[in-house]
Amino acid sequence: MEDPAGKRLEDMAGKEKKTMGWREIKPEEWKVNPFTAIGKEWMLITAGEKENCNTMTASWGGMGVIWGKPSVTVYIRQSRYTKEFVDRGECFSITFFDEKYRNALNLCGTVSGRDRDKISEAGLTPCNVEQTAAFEEAKVIVLCKRQFHQVMSPEGFDVKENDSKWYADRDYHTMYIGSIEKILVKEEETWDV
Questions:
Q1: pTM for this structure?
Q2: Which DSSP helix (H) or strand (E) runs through 62?
Q3: Residue 93 near residue 128 (C-beta atoms within 8 A)
Q4: Is 190 exposed, middle or buried (0-12, 13-18, 19+ CB in 10 A)?
Q5: pLDDT tens sequence across 23-70
Q6: For 1-34, what is each residue's pLDDT tens digit?
Q7: CA 126/CA 53 separation, integer angstroms
Q8: What distances in angstroms separate CA 89 from CA 15, 57, 147, one per listed residue?
Q9: What's the alpha-carbon Rg for the chain, to the nearest Å?
Q10: Contact predicate 76/172, CB 8 Å
Q11: What CA–CA distance (Å, rounded) separates 66 from 136?
């Protein structure tokens, strides 16, 4: 699957499986509660090309409008391997999955791609979406173009307890703001008998 926005038909055991593939929607058409989607269901942040990419699970982030553009904000710690890929590229993706992929997301959030092929172990299939990688198994792919990044630092904390609680090891997040360039929603699969 090189182009998730494309349509395809497959024939299996005499039955025709109609896969509508992906449908592009506008940001204002996406009916999602970001508190649930990010904070409870989680997302994958991915960058690179399908042959050489990395991903990480995130439950911190946001969606809104800045500089007149629908945008997302993601946070990546300095120590994360995915950060190297996000820093190298112009774009990154955030992807959302059905609950049946919870174990895959858990693995991608606890294992480093430096040490193991966690994408393969999680049973995920990378695909290219324009300038970055995403996953065929996702229910929603959001293609983001980097607009801004800034490393969090101790001086920036107005509530000092957040610094000591979340950054005792001094592994601060970098905040990335990405404009939403495209949202792809997976279409339902149907079988004709």
A1: 0.86
A2: strand 61-66
A3: no
A4: exposed
A5: 999 999 999 999 999 999 999 999 999 999 999 999 999 999 999 999
A6: 444 544 433 333 444 444 458 999 999 999 999 9
A7: 8
A8: 42, 19, 12
A9: 18
A10: no
A11: 29
